[in-house]
Design brief:
Layout (H helix, E strand, L loop, with lengths): L2 H7 L13 H18 L4 E3 L21 E8 L5 H18 L3 E5 L16 E10 L7 H11 L9 E3 L5 H11 L10 E6 L2 E6 L6 H16 L1 E3 L7 E3 L11
Parallel strand pairs: 5-6
Antiparallel strand pairs: 1-2, 2-4, 3-4, 6-7, 8-9
The chain binds flavin mononucleotide (FMN).
Length: 250
């Protein structure tokens, strides 16, 4: 599966089978995690058995079932771009897991944040997790209900950007990749701006996961449009000749 096929086909899965992730794939995930930790100055970790963090919940909107392994998204608490970086690099990890045939779901709310997945360093902050594992081939009835509720108000592509002139094809390829991105409650709170031949992103709403969402959509735009962003709201996109300039893995 190519990176762009992963962008195209990834969806959140909320029901996992009890098939463990084989050691070779765990090793690959760990290798990729090491790459992004180095690039972003982060301390993301794969946790083989994080099921305890999902054991006590019963009424959250996106109740996940059968979760065993998680990717814990964490880094230095004082990093001003921590949430955005975890969104950006976390989504690259999600797409790499998708290419390995693994199912994923970003989880900001539907897990027990007090549950000690492992001992955090005093200066480290865990922002959210990604559930990862194998899912049944077809969506379960419950997954279909949650998905339908969240996708009822899908934003059309035109609502994801603004342009002061017809933007180039590569910009629209970036917006298409953004339309495929996961965002908390599927709100897509960001808007890409094409102005005087430059690209930057604005956050439309102020709510708790918006900076994670900002990082996620920047990752998708970078892969679709071929280039990269510096962190921060309003940072300008740098177009590269190499389509997958933002892809840090083999
Ligand atoms: C930061 C973040 C937090 C999320 N938290 C949850 C959650 O707590 N529970 C849940 O079921 N889904 C959660 N999601 C998944 C979104 O609901 C999902 O990405 C969105 O509905 C779009 O659907 P898709 O991922 O299938 O494209 C979260 C997504 C993001 C990006």
């Amino acid at each position: 599966m190519t990176v762009m096929q992963a962008v195209e086909t990834r969806i959140s899965r909320r029901s996992f089978t009890n098939n463990p992730i084989p050691p070779a794939l765990v090793a690959q995930l760990d290798e990729n995690i090491a790459v992004v930790n180095k690039l972003g100055g982060l301390s993301i970790r794969f946790v083989q058995d994080g099921s305890g963090a999902f054991a006590r919940l019963s009424h959250t909107y996106g109740l996940l079932t059968g979760v065993k392994s998680v990717i814990s998204l964490a880094g230095p608490a004082e990093d001003p771009f921590l949430h955005e970086k975890l969104g950006y690099f976390g989504e690259l990890l999600v797409l790499s897991a998708t290419r390995m045939g693994l199912a994923t779901c970003w989880v900001g709310g539907s897990f027990d944040k007090e549950y000690p997945l492992y001992q955090l360093h005093p200066f480290e902050k865990q922002v959210c997790v990604v559930a990862v594992g194998f899912a049944p081939k077809e969506l379960t009835a419950r997954e279909k209900i949650v998905r339908k509720a969240l996708h009822r108000a899908n934003k059309p592509m035109e609502a994801l950007y603004e342009a002061d002139e017809p933007p180039p094809e590569w910009f629209m390829a970036g917006i298409y990749a953004v339309s495929k991105a996961p965002t908390a409650r599927n709100l897509h709170p960001t808007r890409f701006i094409w102005k005087e031949s430059s690209v930057f992103v604005q956050n439309e709403a102020r709510f708790s996961y918006q900076k994670i969402d900002l990082g996620i959509v920047k990752a998708h735009f970078s892969l679709g449009a071929g280039g990269r962003f510096e962190p921060g709201e309003g940072s300008v996109f740098i177009k590269e000749n190499h389509q997958l300039a933002a892809w840090p893995f083999d």
